[in-house]
Amino acid sequence: xxxxxxxxxxxxxxxxxxxxxxxxxxxxxxxxxxxxxxxxxxxxxxxxxxxxxxxxxxxxxxxxxxxxxxxxxxxxxxxxxxxxxxxxxxxxxxxxxxxxxxxxxxxxxxxxxxxxxxxxxxxxxxxxxxxxxxxxxxxxxxxxxxxxxxxxxxxxxxxxxxxxxxxxxxxxxxxxxxxxxxxxxxxxxxxxxxxxxxxxxxxxxxxxxxxxxxxxxxxxxxxxxxxxxxxxxxxxxxxxxxxxxxxxxxxxxxxxxxxxxxxxxxxxxxxxxxxxxxxxxxxxxxxxxxxxxxxxxxxxxxxxxxxxxxxxxxxxxxxxxxxxxxxxxxxxxxxxxxxxxxxxxxxxxxxxxxxxxxxxxxxxxxxxxxxxxxxxxxxxxxxxxxxxxxxxxxxxxxxxxxxxxxxxxxxxxxxxxxxxxxxxxxxxxxxxxxxxxxxxxxxxxxxxxxxxxxxxxxxxxxxxx
Length: 465
Hints:
By secondary structure, the protein is mainly alpha-helical. Helices cover 58% and strands 0% of the residues. The protein contains 29 helices and no strands. Helix 15 (234-247) crosses helix 17.
């Protein structure tokens, strides 16, 4: 369709035709009016048409209503930082009537909190501290929003602050299209399988998908030959199965063509169903109940190890479980229940079992703090059936009082454990709550031990060296 050529006469004619009933949006006509007349208003005057005005959307706002609305948002626990997105009308009215949104908040008695920053030297010292503690130079290592904000102010960002110390090699790699292609070629030159990259180098695989759309396109961009995947349909699977069944009767399809076996499982649910649909002879190794019973009896007579399921034959054990439900049921079907020892299956816990076991643990006079080291099965079962161990305790009718921590209490507890010769590692089950409190009040477990006068292993190594 050819582009319409505007002239001043055509603009006036089109305005008279379309604007008789008031203002309407017409981007091309409005642009042409501005081009020839300077503005749409001037074009309407030249056409002898009135220039209608839309009523402003903020007729009802006043300073008092803006202040009341801001206070109402605060009372309703709504964010004042996101007002520009959640309530644009209030935000624009506050800026118009008070000059800025910050002044509008101040007028409502809710001034914007001032932000404090670390100095550049303090930012560098904290980064060096993370590096000396051998922690990754990432936000997850410190979770200090003030530190990240200060790095952005003084160095342009966290990466710039780390680079200023010459530690850019410790930062996560920034992937560009060129970096992705070079990394793919390096993997190929090193002899790595490119189709296992998703498991061996997840960072490279994710970057390739992000930059090129998918892994195949990234390989093509790197100049490498890409194997095209064969598209399988049910008819094609059956046709290939029949061809292999004629050529290799009774052989295991998985050993001959693994791609065909996977495609058959995708299209028919299992390879066995696909073989039945193709009407070919099943593999000779296909397990039946009679064959499983015979194999168990033969291996028992041969003196195979009885303490292993399947008597040392893993495929036999798997087939027995598929056909009989459990290995014990298969042994019973073989008539050897009195001669083959079957290990007792692991206990299956229910929520009621957890509650009963917690009450039994208390009745027998044990302390609940010892359950973490002496009855881990109960702890794990409680975590599966309840959100937390505390919730399991409350369900069993026990109230868990939370210990109140402060710096003197933490120091005293560390010193007591040190004098008693107990473990002072943060991941020890007895130190979980103490370590968490130490991080809250001292910043780290190491700092808490230093405050308690207990040297860490890392400090001892430095002194020894």
